[in-house]
Amino acid sequence: MTEAGKRAVVLLSGGLDSATVLAIAQGKGYDCCCLSFSYGQRHVNELTQARAVASRARVAQHLVLQLDLAAIGGSALTSELAVPKGRALEAMAAEIPVTYVPGRNTIFLSYAVAWAEVLGAADIFIGVNALDYSGYPDCRPEFLAAFEAVANLGTKAGVTGERRFTIHAPLLRLTKAEIIRQGLALGVDYALTHSCYDPDAAGRACGACDSCLLRLKGFAEAGVADPAPYQFQG
Prior knowledge:
Layout: E1 7-11, H1 16-27, E2 31-38, H2 46-57, E3 61-66, H3 89-94, H4 104-119, E4 123-125, H5 141-153, H6 156-160, E5 166-168, H7 176-185, H8 210-222
Parallel strand pairs: 1-2, 1-4, 2-3, 4-5
């Protein structure tokens, strides 16, 4: 059981899932420090939404780190590769898509552990999901368990026994509809979130990339209108 007021690091992308995870962590009594990344992503406007979500939630701290994963490339999110559009759900699950960013969650969690060690925090929250997702290998429970072991083997806090790091993934086995219902019950304002991989210059979602399709499916199954702006709305 979590003690009220315990500090946690929450990875906050500005998307639907991470906003929900932040609300869950706060609901458990954690004093949340949010960590976001400007990593060369083509949908960099998600950071504007991350700041809005963090501000509304009145988090203890919100740190935005600068990385250059675009220099590495290898993903449609960090290069000129085309973002897949209009794919069936079965196709999304059939293979690891080109929107996979090599090493992203490993890198993000490494920074989260480093910051948590400095903050005196032992708990790290991440919004990965293994049901309604795009087939990324770093969203699986096996990965999270392995990374948690690495965090405790490779840090001063872990090896001295000062504290044990725990990676929390409360959305791991939930559908998008279940995530949305839980978030709404916790007061999440999904109008502040952004999920699209290929938004237009005005920041409106394309409505056709994998992330948009999964988001729209979730809202439809939850019986709630998606408040995000879409290009097809004119």
